[in-house]
Known about the structure:
By secondary structure, the chain is an alpha+beta fold. The protein contains 14 helices and six strands.
Amino acid sequence: MLRIFHNTTYDFIRPWRIMVVTTAAFITLGLVLLGVSWARTGTSVHYSIDFTGGTLIQVQFQQPPDVGAIRSALDAGGVHDAEIESFGTNRDYTIRAQDVAQSVSRGAAAEAQAPSAEQVAARIDTLLTNKLGKGVFHVVRTEAVGPLVGSELRRGAIIAILVSFVATLIYLAFRFEWRFGVAAVIATGHDILTTLAFIKLLDLEVSLIIVTAILTVIGYSLNDTIIIFDRVREDLRKKRKESLYDTLNRAINETLPRSVMTHATAFAATLALLLLAGEVIRPFAWVMAFGIVTGTFSSVYVAGPVLLWIERKYPRDAAGRRSLNAKAPKGAETARSATQAAAVRS
């Protein structure tokens, strides 16, 4: 069996201050951009028609078409960011295009949007005819897509995130301690903020698939954090004469071979989707690739330091209180030495 990074003794926690400042700056930049966008346009991110409403057209071609040619024809005619998906066979496609008039009036009913949908459908029909030729395809159906599904989805996504937070807190508090649950939830909140900042920096269109990617990132990050915390619990049960700082470092090093193999495999699969998949799946691949990075980062440099802070603030017992409330040392190495010395004296 291949074993890499076995029996390592890296001090992962030591540069936590630098890492926290770095990720805080990244999150701040993303929040500033979101705020600026909201002030200018009334919306913080670029929503797809799943959230804003638009026009859905089902088109059937005589022969399997070149999707790139369809997209270039629509872009050249001013129909930008259209979602083109295969529908059943390789000759049937759906084209979803956002209409500016519809996106401005988000509360409009689908019936009121129908005339505009017909106009957009006629425009797409003309653009494809000019590009591909007459008789190459025919429009099967045209629908106006209202924004109601978007508001329901936003509400459902928020509820799903909150439920995952509460379930994680209860699970970790029951299996470990409440300290672990709080640290894991804060680390997951960090992942959501950094992912939103990343989406804004790349100006990705927020669609159903992006929401799916965000929820997947949450699960991935929580799983990574729980694995490290599970090893911390096992090491604490061995009652070694070492500080929680050293126990955390030991747990991260012990799970490092598994983490490297898992993250490298997941990142390689995501990279393949990013490079080889089509336009529809590419936003999902972008978010997942970043999610693997930020999820790994938060498991070490957010969950770990938060757990140490909670332990220092609310130590488990009298001995722990004396050791962890010893003179607040500067630097992780000094903190570790002071904690060990206090433990020996007690």
